[in-house]
Amino acid sequence: MKPFHFALLSILMSGVMATSYAQESTEIIFYKSHEPKKQNAPFSDVVQAGNMYFLAGQIGMDHATRTLVEGGIQAETEQAIKNIEDVLAQHGMTLDNVVKCTVILANIEDFAAFNEVYTQYFTKKPARTTYAAKGLAAKSSIEIDVIAVK
């Protein structure tokens, strides 16, 4: 085997072994909600894998009243983002830690109105996927989930 090929093979094998070790040694933590009324929910508000945090989707619900905020897509978008901020804060993070957003709209016609609010909060411009789906939780207009890195 030529020295160059041997060196290349050694580098590739080191990378494979390091990746395999990282996957085996990454602790996964499932966090209960910081909200007392959601402590028994059948999902975690946040799942941590290493320095990555996967947040459950948030809708425009005021958690104090457990009702959707009034005011349509823009009010619901703002409340959903505030809910995300609250969850991130529980783990010492802000919206600046968000690297990926998935946005589900009940009506794709609401895209421009949603985006007006969204761009005010996500100034770092994380990667984003947006689509429409029929029948969101609690008859909401929007749901947003994020992945953050600490």
UniProtKB/TrEMBL annotation:
Any one cellular-component term (Gene Ontology): cytosol
- Signal peptide region: 1-22
A GO molecular function assigned to this protein is: deaminase activity
Point out the coiled-coil segments of this chain: none
NCBIfam families tied to this protein: Rid family detoxifying hydrolase
Its source organism is Flagellimonas lutimaris
Keywords in alphabetical order, please: Signal
Provide the family line: Belongs to the RutC family.
What is this protein called in UniProt?
RidA family protein
